[in-house]
C-alpha cells in the first residue's frame, strides 16, 4: 500500500515536472515566436510596401504605355489624313496646271490674284501713300507715255524735272513723278512699255504691280495690243478706274 502511494506520488511529481517543463518550453517558444515576429514584421511591412509601390509603378507604366499608344495611333491617323490632303492638293495642282496649259494653248490667259504680301511689296515699291492719288500711265513702248505725263504735270519735255522722252522707249524702270503743283495730291508713274521687258502679255499687269494704283491710263498709238487688253481686263477685275488715251493721232490721220 505504501509502495503504491509512493509510486503514485512520484508519478504525480514527474507529471507536474513534465508539465512545468512543457509550459516553460511553450512560453520559451512563444517568446521566440514573438521576437521573430517583431524582427520580421518591418521586413514584411517593407516587402508589402515595395510590392504595392511596384504594382502602382507598373500601373503607371501601363497607363503611360497605353497613352503613348493612343498618341501614336492619333499621330498615324493625322499623318494619313495629311498625306491624303497633300495627295489631293497635288492632284488638284496638277489638274489646275493641265487646265492652265490647255487654256494657254487656246489663247485663254490665266487669272493671277496677287497675295497680300505681294500687294504690300508693290505698295512699298511705288511709295504708296493714303493721302495721294497714284496714277499709272502704261502702254506699248515708244507710245508717248513720258510726253503725256509731262503734259499732265504742266511741263515741257525739255524742262527740268520732266520725264525723259525719246523716239524709242527710254523708260526701262518704273519712274515716280510727283506733280510739281503742291495743290494737286497726284503722283504720276511712267510704266516701262510692253515689249521692252521679257514678260508675257498676261503677266505684265501683275509683274508691274499695277493692281495698287488708284487710276490707270492705257496709252496706245495706232492699234491695241494684247498687253493693252490684258491691262483693261485686269483693271475691271480689280475695279481700278481706267482711261484709254490715243497718242500721235495727228500722225495716223
Output the keywords.
single chain; alpha/beta; Rossmann fold; five-stranded mixed sheet; GTP binding
Which consecutive residue ranges, at least 5 long each, have pLDDT under 50? none
Average pLDDT value? 81
Radius of gyration computed on alpha carbons: 51 Å
Number of helices in the DSSP assignment:
6
What percent of residues are in strands? 5-15%
Shape: rod-shaped
SSE order, as H and E? HHEHEEHEHEH
CATH architecture of the domain at 116-252: 3-Layer(aba) Sandwich
Largest sheet, strands/sense/barrel: 5 strands, mixed
Number of strands: 5
Which structural class should the secondary elements be placed in?
Answer: alpha/beta
Assembly type of the shown chains? Answer: single chain
- Percent range for helical residues? 55-70%
Region (Disordered): 20-68
GO molecular function, one term: GTP binding
Family: Belongs to the TRAFAC class dynamin-like GTPase superfamily. IRG family.
Protein name: Interferon-inducible GTPase-domain-containing protein
Write the layout of secondary structure elements.
Elements: H1 2-105, H2 116-126, E1 133-139, H3 145-152, E2 175-178, E3 186-190, H4 201-207, E4 215-220, H5 226-238, E5 242-246, H6 249-252
Parallel strand pairs: 1-3, 1-4, 4-5
Antiparallel strand pairs: 2-3
Helix pairs in contact: 4-5
Structure explained in plain terms:
This protein is of the alpha/beta class and 253 residues long. It has a domain at 116-252: 3-Layer(aba) Sandwich (Rossmann fold). It contains six helices and five strands, in the order ααβαββαβαβα. The chain has a five-stranded mixed beta sheet, with helices on both faces. Helix 4 crosses helix 5 (226-238). The longest helix is centred in the N-terminal third of the chain and has 104 residues, at 2-105. The radius of gyration is 51 Å and the shape is rod-shaped.
Amino acid at each position: 500500500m505504501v509502495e503504491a502511494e509512493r509510486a503514485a506520488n512520484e508519478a504525480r511529481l514527474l507529471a507536474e515536472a513534465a508539465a512545468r517543463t512543457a509550459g516553460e518550453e511553450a512560453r520559451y517558444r512563444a517568446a521566440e515566436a514573438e521576437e521573430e515576429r517583431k524582427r520580421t514584421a518591418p521586413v514584411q511591412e517593407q516587402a508589402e510596401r515595395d510590392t504595392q509601390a511596384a504594382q502602382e509603378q507598373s500601373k503607371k507604366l501601363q497607363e503611360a504605355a497605353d497613352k503613348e499608344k493612343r498618341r501614336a495611333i492619333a499621330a498615324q491617323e493625322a499623318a494619313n489624313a495629311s498625306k491624303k490632303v497633300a495627295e489631293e492638293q497635288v492632284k488638284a495642282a496638277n489638274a489646275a496646271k493641265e487646265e492652265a496649259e490647255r487654256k494657254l494653248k487656246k489663247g485663254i490667259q490665266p487669272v493671277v490674284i496677287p497675295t497680300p504680301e505681294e500687294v504690300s511689296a508693290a505698295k512699298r515699291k511705288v511709295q504708296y501713300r493714303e493721302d495721294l492719288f497714284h496714277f499709272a500711265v502704261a502702254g506699248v513702248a515708244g507710245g508717248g507715255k513720258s510726253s503725256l505725263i509731262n503734259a499732265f504735270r504742266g511741263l515741257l519735255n525739255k524742262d527740268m524735272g520732266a520725264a525723259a522722252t525719246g523716239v524709242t522707249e527710254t523708260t526701262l524702270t518704273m519712274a515716280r513723278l510727283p506733280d510739281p503743283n503742291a495743290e494737286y495730291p497726284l503722283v504720276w508713274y511712267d510704266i516701262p512699255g510692253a515689249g521692252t521687258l521679257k514678260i508675257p502679255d498676261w503677266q505684265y499687269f501683275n509683274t508691274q504691280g499695277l493692281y495698287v494704283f488708284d487710276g490707270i491710263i492705257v496709252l496706245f498709238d495706232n492699234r491695241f495690243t494684247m498687253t493693252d487688253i490684258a491691262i483693261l481686263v485686269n483693271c475691271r477685275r480689280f475695279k481700278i478706274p481706267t482711261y484709254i488715251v490715243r497718242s500721235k493721232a495727228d500722225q495716223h490721220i
